[in-house]
Every structure is written in C-alpha cells, then in structure tokens.
Amino acid sequence: MNHHHTTDIAMEQDKDAELKTRLNQETSKLRWTELQRHYAGGNVVAVDETLDLIAVAVAIARDDAAAVKKWMADGRLARVSDIQAAAWLQVDLEMWAVVVKPWVLVQRVERVAGMSGLH
How much is the pTM? Predict the structure, then answer.
C-alpha cells in the first residue's frame, strides 16, 4: 500500500467520525405524532432495533447502496407502512429520529410487547 492511499483511508475515517458525531448530536427522541408530517410526505424509514441507527444513517449519507440494499432485503430497513404508522399512532410510540435528507430515519426506543421487527 502506498503512502498516498493510506492518507486517503485516514481522511475517509476522519470524515466518517465527523459524520457520526454530527448525526449523534442531531438524533432526538420524538413521539410518533411529532413525526407524522414527515410520514405524510413519504420520507420516514424504519430501522430495525438489531441495527445501529447511526451506522445506518452514515451508510445512507455516504450512499452505501450495497449495505442499504442488504438491510432492505433482510427486512431490517423499510419505508414506514400505513399499518405501522396507524399502530404507532395508536400508542403514540416514542422513537429515535435522525434526518439524512430527504429521509427521516426512525427506530423504536423500546420494544413493545407482542411486536417484533419493524412492525
């Protein structure tokens, strides 16, 4: 590996670290009722609890199509469905939310009894 390539990798890692820090600071806990207007625009994406919300946000921000496609194929990343939205609205579920334009990524704060995965 030449020195120039090593420097590029180090710069990418620094950018990732900065991005992670920024996204962490921008992540907040919101009730589903506060997220509804984003859902109405079709921009809310649910992240399964088995995934790290910030890692997913970084992958989307960096346009890491391979990782995003894999999570979607595994059913661990998906646009919020009408059924999910209605269920979450009923209990006004508390969610972690972070914006990676144009998307709002959401992840449940706590598991709800009887609910598994993204549902």
Answer: 0.81
Query: How far apart (Å, rounded) are the C-alpha atoms in residues 110 and 22?
Result: 23
Which among 34, 8, 17, 49 has a CA at the least distance from the CA of 104? 34
DSSP character at residue 49: T
**Residue 47 zone, left/alpha/beta (φ > 0; ψ -120 to 50; rest):** beta
How many residues in the chain? 119
Of 50, 55, 60, 51, nearest to 104 by C-alpha is 60
Residue in the block written with tokens 């469905």: 81
**SS3 assignment, position 77:** strand
Portion of the chain with pLDDT greater than 70, in percent? 87
Is the pLDDT reported for residue 5 higher than 70? no
